Every structure is written in structure tokens, then in C-alpha cells.
Known about the structure:
By secondary structure, the protein is α+β, with helices and mostly antiparallel strands. 28% of the residues lie in helices and 14% in strands.
Amino acid sequence: MLVIALLVGVSYGVGRFLLSNALEVTRAITIERPRASVFAMANDLRIAREWSPYYAMDPDAEYAFSGPVGAGQSMRWSSNVREVGSGRIAIVNFDREPADRKHPDASG
């Protein structure tokens, strides 16, 4: 029994100090719509009700918005429905053109 306890303790210690405590979740999706319409909808959190499936789950949830449209805008929500919950989302950076379509400055 002591050997098992020591092995568990050593495993925990190694995992605790060698493994990262950070977690990052990333999602990607392909949207079959014109780029301008997707940009307009994703760049303004105030119209999220038009496309968010969570709004349909609880239309009575409370929403609060701050900041200008685009980078810097944030939305807080609070709901009594477990699947919706509460939280905050913010637009940190929004680039209208993907990196592969940008033209570098070669005037140098």
C-alpha cells in the first residue's frame, strides 16, 4: 500500500511541475457566405442574437455591451439556463483579410 501511495505521489509531483497548467481552446469553421456579410456579423457583438444558438435557448438572458464595434468591443451575458450560463466575450483583433490575401509593403 505504501508503494502505491509513493507512486501516486511521485506521479502527481512530476505532472504538477512538468506539465503546463494553461489550456487553450481553438475552433475553426468554413462559412459558405460572402466575406463582407460574415465580417459585418462577426465584427459587431450587438447583432449576435441573429446568429447565436444560445440566444434561442434563453431569449430572457441579460446582455451588456461595451466598446466600439470591432476590436475592443465586449459582451457580457447572464442566464439561468445551464447550457447558456454566464460569461464574457471580447473582440481582441479582427482582420478583414486573411494573411494569404494581404500584400506586403515592398517600398523599402
